[in-house]
Amino acid sequence: MGEGRNPGRRPEDVARYYLSDILSERAGENPQQAVTDHSRRVHVCAPGSSAMAAFFLANLSLELARNRYPVIIHDPAEDGQIDVRALMMSVADQHTVPGILRVSLYGLPEILITRGEQGAEKCLGNSCHTSTNVLDTQPEYVRLIGVPGSIDHLRGVGQGSYVMMVSRQDDMSLLQCYAYVKVLAGKDPGVSISLVLDESEDSRTAHVRFQRFSDRVFTKCGVSIRYLGSLVHDACLGLSMVQGKPLVLFQDASSSKEQVISIAQEFLSWSGHVRGEGHAR
Amino acid sequence: MTKFLKPLTIADHEQVVKICAQYFTSELGFRILEFNLGNTYTGSIDLLAVNHTRVHLIFINTSHFPDTLFRSLTGYRRFRQDSDFLCRVYGAKDVNFDLTPELVILSPDFLPEISSVLREMMRVPVKLFRYLMFGHESDPELFVEELVESKRESAQEGLDLAAVRKNLGIEESVLTDDEIREFLAQMRS
Q1: DSSP secondary structure string for all residues of A68-96
Q2: The pTM is what?
Q3: Are A175 and B186 within 8 A, CB to CB?
Q4: N or C: which end of chain A has fewer CB within 10 A?
């Protein structure tokens, strides 16, 4: 009998299939041959507040994990700013590869946090550690990429990207947001953009503000913006920031927690295409 | 020598109304038609005044602002109901009651965000004035200023757009002056 491929699975294959955290290993793929799926990226941009960018990166990653999607977060924070690591402090596993923080809650796929968009690639260049290779060889990972708070950084956003923006609802913040959208739309008319209004007084006012903003953007830039919701700042949100524990993990009910969960659900619906669910934009 | 002025509180509502009436006649050129029109149950207006462009229903708060705000709403309703009667009393030649009525509320203090709330909620134009009195009760001095909202809007018209762009980190090639003005006008429409 020849050396042909055995269609059956050996015990170690079966064990790897059921016990591995890495989905491509479960599928029997060779990690070294897998290619990064660049379409599975969502850029998160909060022009006025790096802290809120970190806040949404942390909470959205947990909601993605809760829906069975492993996540890689590219944390954009610079020194001295509140970053995703600080907001995930209470749930992160400290014993991991240098440069990568791992969050692995019981029964959920892992969340990997790395500094900057190039962080993963640098780790790959410097190390042959298996875990670091995960960052670039697992197409099923959804990448949440934080965009630093400067309009210049939008040049790194690729064609057909998904960009979630977070803005306060006052005129100047929305003007800044409009400038960002204009740059994105000028670079790629096919860009998909969603918006969260932060520090809103009430949801109705926020929605009216969004409608005006959205009308303006559609008229001038030809881009339709998806509204994900508004967020009120309350004591629970403040506590989440201070304790380094994402708001969606809090036991107690609060307005901000309800709103974050609602925003996350809208986010999941909007980014369905990114996660390979074939949703229309 | 520096003088420290302490606000004076006058309990007599009628006296405060008379003092404020002087401000509207001498400073703003209003003509006062009526003092204390109506009553508590049907809605009362402290001062009914006119000028060339509008009929002004003036309400002066001397206790709680929410009560005065509600009184202004019932007073407006009363005015609309009685407009035919007022026309007959004053004569169409003398006073044009077809002019747009405007609510004017004076108060020493206001609820937060009241200007923006009223602007969004009310069809009828509303102007808010903050007033303070100083000196002695027998010879008080009145200070009146229109609430900041309108001043802020006029200030925004003279906005330094270069400074705005710098603060927001936006280059002129991304947003021109005209685009910024158009955007802000649309957001405030």
Answers
A1: T--EEEEE-PPTTS--HHHHTTTT-BSSS
A2: 0.58
A3: no
A4: N
Determine, for residues B113 and A213 on separate chains, whether the beta-carbon distance falls below 8 Å: no
CB contact under 8 A, B183 and A151: no
Asked if B180 is an interface residue toward chain A (Cβ–Cβ < 8 A), one would say yes
Residue numbers in B near A172 (CB within 8 A): 164, 167-168
**B117 close to A (CB below 8 A):** no
The count of residues in chain A is 281
B169 closest CB neighbour out of A150, A174, A212: A150
Strand order in the sheet with B100-107: B31-39, B43-50, B54-60, B100-107, B126-136, B139-146
B181 contacts on A by Cβ (under 8 Å): none
Beta-carbon separation of A172 and B168 below 8 A:
yes
List pLDDT tens digits, range A190-229. Answer: 889 999 999 887 888 888 899 989 999 998 898 999 999 9
Residue-level pLDDT at A25: 47
Contact (Cβ atoms closer than 8 angstroms) between residue A193 and residue A184: yes
Angle between the A130-137 and A119-126 helix axes, to the nearest 10 degrees? 140
Q: Provide the pLDDT for residue B80.
A: 86
What pLDDT is recorded for position A15? 57
The whole-number pLDDT of residue A11 equals: 65
Task: Give chain A positions within 8 Å (CB) of B180.
Answer: 175
Q: What is the spatial distance between Cα A134 and Cα A111, in angstroms, rounded to a whole number?
A: 11
pLDDT in tens, B75-104: 998 888 888 888 888 876 677 777 778 999
**Residue in chain A lying closest to B180 (CA):** A175
Greatest mean pLDDT among A109-123, B14-28, B95-109? B14-28
Q: Identify the weakest region by mean pLDDT among A95-99, A137-141, A162-166, B63-67.
A: A137-141
**In whole angstroms, what is the distance from residue A216 CA to residue B40 CA?**
47
Interior angle at CA A145, CA A144 and CA A148, nearest 5: 145
